[in-house]
């Protein structure tokens, strides 16, 4: 897929599916295929294979290639498949090549393994990985990878295939400064969580990445719908009732943004399974809390 075509499709909900594991922590490939087949009957705009919610950092190179390949096969061209890549320069380039071979339509570059890189190092990390492919590139600003407006502008000028910027910081003031500096050179994506849809859409953004979509795509799509039409009351009510309680639980422990989604998948009869260490599974008591949250999602399941 040409980068410009990829960009044109990034409107609405981008789903971040989990990668299901069996009880022995091996890949549950049949479960992944079934999950994706159910997801793609809904009008989402794209799918990120082996992203953060997909436990990219726990996958071996062979498993990573298999997950991207199976995602492409299961989606059957209905929506673009964007593959997560990262770690370091050499491994990032290898992942890009594996994603291309598997048939991915674009790549999402995660922050590097090293949390103390300065702007020059970060710039070269993203530039060199992007240079390894003709696919459209998205950069994911999250965790320790924070950027000044000037750095984002420089990256946009240096990477012709850079089509979109995914904000994972949730710092609306910084994001607005970046957007004002770079303008429509990039497509802007709200990527810190479903709970920030109201904040993101107030800035004019019309795309967000959703882990909730892996369980209840109708809920994510309704958030987008209310955001687009500017129905602040309905959007606020839906966030307060269905989304914010989940995000409060996700914030309890590191990695719970994955663990809670996998538990919910199992509860609705889809394939979730356990997380791999160093992530931890939710407790039995927290599973009961999740069932209460899920009861409020009934109309969206």
The radius of gyration over CA amounts to 18 Å
Number of helical regions: 12
Mean pLDDT: 97
What's the level 1 CATH class? Answer: Alpha Beta
Strand content: 5-15%
Major sheet details: 8 strands, parallel
Can you say what the CATH homologous superfamily is? Aldolase class I
In CATH terms, what is the fold-level topology? TIM Barrel
Number of domains: 1
Sequence of strands across the biggest β-sheet: 7-6-5-4-3-2-1-8
Give the CATH architecture.
Answer: Alpha-Beta Barrel
Shape: globular
Element pattern in H and E: HEHEHEHEHEHEHEHEHHHH
Helix content estimate = 40-55%
Number of strands: 8
Give unreliable regions as ranges.
none
Secondary-structure class: alpha/beta
Describe this structure in words.
It is a single chain. The protein has helices at 3-9, 29-39, 61-75, 89-102, 119-130, 149-158, 172-182, 197-202, 217-229, 232-250, 256-267, 284-295; strands spanning 12-15, 46-49, 81-87, 106-112, 136-141, 162-167, 187-190, 207-210. It is an alpha/beta fold. An 8-stranded parallel beta sheet has the order 7-6-5-4-3-2-1-8. The longest helix is centred in the last third of the chain and has 19 residues, at 232-250. The radius of gyration is 18 Å and the shape is globular. The mean pLDDT is 97.
């Amino acid at each position: 897929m040409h980068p410009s075509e990829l960009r044109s499709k990034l409107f609405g909900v981008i789903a971040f599916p989990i990668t299901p594991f069996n009880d022995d922590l091996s890949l549950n490939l049949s479960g992944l295929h079934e999950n994706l087949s159910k997801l793609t009957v809904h009008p989402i705009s794209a799918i990120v294979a082996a992203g953060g919610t997909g436990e990219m950092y726990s996958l071996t190179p062979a498993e990573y290639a298999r997950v991207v390949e199976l995602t492409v096969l299961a989606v059957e061209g209905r929506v673009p498949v964007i593959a997560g890549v990262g770690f370091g320069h050499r491994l990032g380039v290898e992942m890009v090549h594996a994603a291309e071979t598997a048939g991915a339509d674009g790549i999402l570059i995660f922050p590097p393994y090293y949390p103390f890189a300065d702007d020059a190092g970060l710039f070269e990390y993203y530039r060199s990985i992007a240079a390894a492919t003709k696919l459209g590139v998205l950069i994911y600003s999250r965790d320790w990878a924070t950027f000044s407006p000037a750095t984002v502008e420089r990256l946009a000028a240096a990477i012709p295939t850079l089509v979109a910027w995914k904000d994972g910081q949730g710092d609306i003031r910084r994001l607005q400064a970046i957007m004002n500096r770079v303008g429509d050179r990039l497509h802007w994506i709200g990527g810190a969580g479903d709970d920030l849809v109201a904040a993101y859409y107030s800035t004019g953004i019309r795309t967000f990445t959703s882990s909730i979509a892996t369980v209840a795509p109708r809920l994510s799509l309704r958030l987008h719908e209310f955001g687009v039409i500017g129905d602040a009351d309905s959007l606020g009510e839906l966030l307060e009732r269905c989304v914010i309680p989940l995000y409060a639980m996700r914030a309890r422990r590191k990695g719970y943004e994955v663990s809670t989604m996998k538990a919910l998948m199992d509860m609705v009869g889809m394939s979730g399974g356990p997380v791999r260490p160093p992530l931890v599974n939710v407790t039995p008591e927290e599973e009961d809390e999740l069932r209460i949250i899920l009861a409020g999602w009934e109309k969206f399941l």
